[in-house]
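Meet today's protein:

…
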Amino acid sequence: MVRIARESLAFASVASFVWMMCAVAAHVS
């Protein structure tokens, strides 16, 4: 259970990071 929560948290952090990069790139261009 802890491993699943940790993996989901890591996936959420990576997804939010990618979304932030895409948002910044779209805003700059």
Remarks:
- The chain has one domain: 1-29.
- The longest helix spans residues 2-28.
